[in-house]
Amino acid sequence: MMGRPLDLDVAIYRDRVQLTDRKTRRLADQRANYRFSSDESVVSDVRYLEDTIVRAIRQIAVGDDLFILQDPVAHVVGCETALDKEERAVVETALRQSGMASVVFEID
User: What is the pTM of this model?
Assistant: First the structure.
């Protein structure tokens, strides 16, 4: 049996992320244990955003024997607010530290 690289849609909200596996359509709606949003920014703390993303990935991976972390891709498809350049860098850093090899922004 061949493994299947992780290919995710990512949506970010205040202290919550939603990940959807593009292949299986499996959804993880993960609330943050530690706030990563502030009054000024939806993504103000990269460390806690990463923690929330990792826990969402675990939800998607549970029971999926074909899932592998070889060249995983994250497609940022939604965010509660528009992301400026610094916020995009925070999101990209959190996704890469979560194991994503490629990050694609599909939002303006």
Answer: 0.92
